[in-house]
Write a structure and sequence with these properties.
DNA-binding; 5 helices; homodimer; two-stranded antiparallel ribbon; mainly alpha
DNA sequence: CGCAATGTATTATTGACTTAATACAATGAT
DNA sequence: ATCATTGTATTAAGTCAATAATACATTGCG
């Protein structure tokens, strides 16, 4: 797995976002077991403490749960996952539109720009 | 001026982005004098050193210039400003689309979402 | 001249993130 | 039973952003 982190944002927060996306996109399925804290740390080339900190946050919001001595698993609550997906999509979309408006582009200009950029799929 | 900063990103970088947007949107005009480092620090309620650090970055990329003992001014090179505006819009748009694809939404779904969200203007 | 305002530089301190190196607790498998 | 694997906790160190408190240099102005 590629692990390119932005130096200007705490790694554990970027990890939270990355894993959240993996879950809401279905890349990691509901009920699926995550790699162990130590393994994830090796894969991502970060400290186990950093991974642990991220996973605690994901557990706090209910996206994963822990079976002690066995591992951590993605929630089996598909409705919750779907809720976070909608929430995530809305949040970053609103933030994006807001930023574009700050530089003076309205929604129509945004729509045109998107049609021209970012792959044709 | 409201100064809501994200605790998880260095303030000086958020300041660079904010001022860059103010310039490329025309909120601060070409050739216009910025408030002094000390005044900006007071307005934004941050340390003068933090403001200074941000302004150095803006000067490095040519968006502002300094007249010692007189102040700092927005560049008068409108072509440069326009270049950064295009660059900025493209960059955040591509990043946005990329993120949406990571959670499994394609461009058509993105277009629909934008039409529904973010004000009607 | 003397002073105020400008940008700039320096030193010290605090706090958060990250890493490193361990250690402990609990469970499943051999 | 023993051991490996899991999550979890602790302590120490290093880095960097941010603040605070100054100080210096240069220019314009009264």
């Amino acid at each position: 797995m590629k692990s390119d982190f932005d130096n200007n944002i705490p790694i554990y927060l970027q990890l939270v976002e990355q894993l959240k996306r993996d879950i809401i996109s279905g890349k990691i399925s509901a009920g699926e077991r995550l790699h162990s804290v130590r393994d994830l740390a090796l894969e991502l080339k970060v400290n186990p403490n950093t991974v642990q900190k991220a996973l605690v946050e994901l557990e706090d919001i209910g996206l994963i749960f822990t079976e002690r001595t066995n591992g951590k698993f993605v929630t089996e609550d598909n409705a919750l996952i779907e809720k976070y997906k909608q929430e995530y999509a809305d949040k970053i979309t609103e933030k994006y539109i807001e930023t574009m408006q700050k530089i003076g582009l309205d929604k129509n200009e945004v729509l045109l720009l998107i049609k021209d950029l970012g792959g044709n799929k």
